[in-house]
Design brief:
mainly alpha, elongated
């Protein structure tokens, strides 16, 4: 995801899981500015869908 700055493939897979009734939602956070940086996101968990999967995309940029 970091290489092409895209989440479309992952979100398509999550949407399929939602359509199949085995996932509740996908939540996207905002980007993080140049280091040092931070971000946060809040989301709910229900008894019907207790598992949570968290992913991130990182790209290392070398400055010359």
């Amino acid at each position: 995801m970091a290489e092409n700055n895209g989440t479309a493939t992952l979100l398509t897979e999550v949407q399929s899981a939602i359509d199949d009734g085995v996932a509740l939602s996908a939540v996207e956070g905002t980007g993080i500015n140049t280091s040092p940086g931070a971000t946060s996101i809040e989301f709910g968990v229900t008894l019907d869908y207790p598992p949570v999967t968290v992913t991130n995309k990182q790209a290392i940029v070398a400055h010359h």
